[in-house]
Design goal:
There is one protein chain. This protein is of the alpha/beta class. It has helices at 9-20, 36-44, 60-67, 95-102, 116-125, 130-133, and strands spanning 25-29, 53-55, 74-76, 79-80, 88-89, 106-112, 138-147, 153-165, 171-178, 190-192. Strands 1, 2, 3, 6, 7, 8, 9 and 10 form an eight-stranded mixed sheet that branches. Strands 4-5 form a two-stranded parallel sheet.
Length: 204
């Protein structure tokens, strides 16, 4: 990702720290194919080998088994907010994931949202209020860009926010990182890719 100028070395260090300290995170972007899954997998690749990682498909049997397990690691949920393929969770399948976070698991997942506020809107639509959603301490936004000439598309980690909570449980987002638009040759002629922008999938 650094070599591809998807993220700066400083930003990559933040992602490594998230993985190394086994923190929950959500990668978000509004358009499809923006690089959410790639970013999730890149972060999980930095998780220490001693930390178990497993996919979670939202079944009652999985939840019962995980709730009583002695070792807690990362739960990988393919996507939150709509159904599309196995591992895409929506509606009543989503709150149990956040219950498992409270039991010691870390969540790694993605969803369709452009801003921090939209992340919380998607989660609320799927039964997770802000006070519970704040159990995820890192939100990572990725973005698609096209150069001025319209000849190339690239994907970047645009922002990393850290979430803290107030005494009443309300989340507050602090910006830790923002892509500065620079490339190795000094070019800054990249802008948000308009052709791929679309409405977020219908939440069910």
């Amino acid at each position: 990702m650094i070599n591809n100028q998807t993220i700066s070395p400083a930003g990559a260090d933040i992602l490594r720290t998230i993985a190394d300290t086994r923190q929950s995170f959500l990668v978000h972007a509004l358009p499809q194919h923006a690089g959410k899954t790639t970013t999730v997998q890149a972060i999980l690749a930095e998780v220490p080998p001693s930390v178990p990682c497993q996919e979670f498909f939202g079944t009652e049997h999985e939840f019962a088994t995980l709730a009583t397990a002695q070792r807690h690691g990362y739960l990988l949920v393919a996507e939150i907010g709509h159904h599309g393929r196995p591992g895409y969770l929506a509606g009543p399948e989503v709150p149990p994931v956040f219950d498992l976070i409270s039991r010691g698991y870390a969540l790694a997942s993605s969803l369709h949202a452009d801003t921090v506020d939209q992340v919380y809107e998607v989660l609320a639509t799927n039964g997770v209020p802000k006070s519970v959603a704040a159990r995820v301490p890192y939100l990572i936004k990725v973005r698609m860009l096209r150069n001025t000439a319209g000849t190339h598309v690239r994907r970047v980690v645009d922002e990393i926010h850290e979430i803290t909570t107030s005494s009443d449980g309300s989340p507050s987002a602090s910006l830790l990182y923002r892509w500065d638009g620079e490339t190795s040759n000094g070019q800054t002629s990249w802008s948000q890719e308009p052709e791929h922008t679309h409405q977020a999938p219908h939440h069910r």
